[in-house]
TetR/AcrR family transcriptional regulator
Amino acid sequence: MGEAEVDTGRRRGRSKGDLREEAILAAAERQLASVGYESITVATLMEEAGGTRGGFYFYFRTKADAVAALVERTVSALHVSLESLSVDQPGAEPVDLIRELLVRTQAIWAEHGPVMSAAVELAPTVPAIGDRWAAARDAVTQTATRIAIQAGLPDSSASDGAAAVTALLVRMGEGAFYEATKRAAPPLSEVTATCGLIWQRCLGA
Amino acid sequence: MGEAEVDTGRRRGRSKGDLREEAILAAAERQLASVGYESITVATLMEEAGGTRGGFYFYFRTKADAVAALVERTVSALHVSLESLSVDQPGAEPVDLIRELLVRTQAIWAEHGPVMSAAVELAPTVPAIGDRWAAARDAVTQTATRIAIQAGLPDSSASDGAAAVTALLVRMGEGAFYEATKRAAPPLSEVTATCGLIWQRCLGA
């Protein structure tokens, strides 16, 4: 992801429109936490964000689009965080890189649990959200696959190859953080520790 | 699960009511595959199963209840299959037991993919289905935890204990079979192979 994309909507001197769009996303994030996706309507969003229902449609076509944009913003934050991992730096230990990846993922779940949970739940049935979520998962999987290859896993597409093993371990982490967020147990830090142990064993470290 | 429970609805000399209930479940399974949960109604089910809409309510309160019963029947089949694994038999290799557990799980996904997929998707939002699915997952996790302890993982509730590691690996398998079923790739047998490799590494075998 280039700087330009990351900067979108985050540049100095925001327009009123940027602020209004951000107010809608902020309302969506709060309402995902308080009442859940099903109970959100364009009316409830605009009541909290300020503005008319018609104003909503200047930014988004549907409620699903607004939540998809929120998911995208959230997973972009994760993406930026993971991009700065120095995966290819000489001397970086694969296991340490994975642990750092897990810690950064945990941080996003801790900060944006309701958005991440909603993404997991809605991805199968809301295409706009499913697409964003799949892209984010693929990006994490690609980063982790590079690390797994460094650790010595086969660089092949076979069932014992780095890509196949990594895809399952990334999905495992997603499910584990989701479950811990929904049940409010175990603490996310324990999920990170257990995931880290499983990764360590799989990387043969 | 006792014999009596397993036998329910499968005894010889079924009543007309048993057959009608089974026809409704069979219709639900076919319609999950053909049109999906959202498009199923009591009317579509009874049109295929034969009978009046009112007849439906003799067996189930809602569409969700009928699909929950179908999920229960399907995961019961998995449960019965896993019960016959001789987990505590002396000389049984933990890695071989896990592989057998995975192969039997794969068989259920291969035979009842639409039901299993629907269960994964609906579990977060349809309580009747979520409860059945969570119970099934817990049962598989308990069996696998006993195997992991035999393999030498710590019998503790800590983040590196058999229960924590197993819970994540079971969830990993669920997600992997789900994804492979939805995308029709990779083949389920490859998912089983990759899961088996990850389990093997985690069991230190």
